Amino acid sequence: MQIAQSVIILLLTTECILAGKHGQRSRKKSKSKVPDKHGTDQSKQIEDMFRAHSYELSIRPKVEGQITKVGLGVMIESITDVSEKNMDFTLTLCLHETWVDPRLRFSSGGKGDSIVLPSRLIDKIWVPDIYIVGSKNSFIHKTTVNNVVLRLYSNGTIYYSVKITSTVACQMNLYNFPLDLESCSLTFQSLGYNNKEVVMEWVGGKDINDLFFDPGLVTSMPKFRLIHHQFLASNQSDSASYNAENKSSLQVMFELKRYPLSFFLQSYFPAMSMVTLAGLGMWIDPRSVPARVALGVTSVLTIATIITGMKSSLPKVSYLTAMDIYLWVCFLFVFATVLQFCALNYFMKRQQNRKARIHRTSAKTSFESWRKKICCFSDDPAALDIFFRLGYFITFLLFNVAYWVYYVILTYHDV
């Protein structure tokens, strides 16, 4: 009896196991028969290719031989800051790249059919390793999503766009500051491929309306005005690499003209005022020693403060800028009024001492009369004061004429 029960239990258990396996097989078959309603036929072909591991990310696409041609287009939204202190400029741009990858061709109903790949598939596709030469800091915008788009066409053509904000170094020539023209460049280059593997070329228009999203925002910047731009293509030698390869490089040159009005109001006009004020102080009675000394010292300290304030907003360069020359000449003019009053006060004291002495009645020789003409300032301090007043303003006027003619007219096109 017990043996019969054991046999029955064993048969029931075996039947249950077989029924379970049959149910699993039927469920798998039913799942495989249900069509996937998500995505298009084109996206399914791309995803099936990645699932089959038939696409190698590390291998660049090869079309027409061994060279991969990458078209590059730039749309600059804004140039937000051009800093002469940090020697850089910050801009926001949309970088458009295009190339052909035959491995990504797919069949479609129309010749021009295309799809926009999701971000999870962009990371699995070969993308040119283009970087901005001289970039100090860059980031990709993420409002409201990652600003990266890749559109794939049925013939394998790829359009890749990314929005970037970058701070790029710009080596400025400040000899003529603030009456200068500065030339800054935006250079794109491949990081790992030489010009025998990847060649870049400009695509699209080269007019100002093609380069800038809104030309009005760029031509009316706070400190600079864009007066010229130029597209260049060249091969740059990467001497830092182990084999000194030549790499394809694309460059946009910007020529920027500085607005000098703010600097004129902040530095030039106060310096002129101090020089004029110090010169007018020579009309004060020389016997009013405290008034003339206070005016001269105040003018010197004011010019020194202006020089210190301007140097703090500029990089530490080893040469004198145009503004340095002007401010230091103004400093010398103001300081000369203090020295003039010291000399005038000395001659006045000598004149007073001379009058207190007994005048000599002996005839003077011709040598004495000649010496008197030379030393007329010591005999008549008022003549020294009048001579210095006229020479002071005439010299300062001539200096201004020579300064502005040289820096505004003769060096207008120097960068």
TrEMBL record:
Residues 46-258 form the Neurotransmitter-gated ion-channel ligand-binding domain. PANTHER family: NEUROTRANSMITTER GATED ION CHANNEL. Keywords: Cell membrane, Chloride, Chloride channel, Ion channel, Ion transport, Membrane, Receptor, Signal, Transmembrane, Transmembrane helix, Transport. It comes from the Eukaryota. It is found in: Cell membrane; Membrane. CDD domains: LGIC_ECD_GABAAR (cd18990), LGIC_TM_anion (cd19049). Residues 23-43 are annotated as: Disordered. This is Gamma-aminobutyric acid receptor subunit rho-2. Residues 23-32 have a biased composition (Basic residues).
